Amino acid sequence: MIRKSIPHIFTLLNLFCGCVAVFLAFSHFFHAALVAVMLGVFFDFFDGFFARLLKVESALGVQLDSLADMVTSGFVPGVVMYQLFVISGAKSVDFSYQYESFSLIFTIVPLALIGFLIPLGAAFRLAKFNLITEKVSFFRGVPTPAIALFIVALPLFIHHPLLVSIKGYVLTPIALSIIVVLSVFFMNIHWKMIALKGFNRSNPWEIFLPIILILVSISMIYIFGLAALIIIIITYIVLSLLKNMFGV
Prior knowledge:
The protein is mainly α. It has a single domain, classed as Up-down Bundle (Four Helix Bundle (Hemerythrin (Met), subunit A)). The protein is 67% helix and 6% strand. Strands 1-2 form a two-stranded antiparallel sheet. The radius of gyration is 19 Å and the shape is globular.
């Protein structure tokens, strides 16, 4: 019984990190929110790892994993994107409603609601993933945790001392809208992404492309710290695009 519960504990830790990240994102503690999401992704990896290691994979584990990912890798980046729209200066609208002694007054940024397309796209991808019965060593489309890390790292990226000059280009409603649309698109595209495990050794590109990604990741983290997640994930997408274009 205890052995079967170990993967579920990691999954619930992932969900807990996602809940904490939601609070941090609403409070504009973006750096801390990114750390919480990274911890969630860490736990997300190990729930599957221990399920396979202990041979306790189950239908419950699959569903619980997707529900946790929906928060950590779906809702959290949606909240961060909403906040970025607000910071970008998108127009806000005041709403008020009163009935007898009850009154409701709040402010909303309508354009910022575009950010919540990200959790919608994540939900669709996770639902499709749950229907896959065959075991493969690669992903089709960018995994939701990768998109989540990309979005949640955006505030750090645009405020990094070496990258502050691009802030005016990224922190605009148009640019943010494009990022949202591309994020949803890449999550659900049918591309075969670069695999970091289960290499086909007869195909040198199966080994060469991941090595490029690893080298870029190490060098970018050394220069930009956590803000490098943006560059790393873009590199991952570009290399996967080349892989699909040239059939390597």
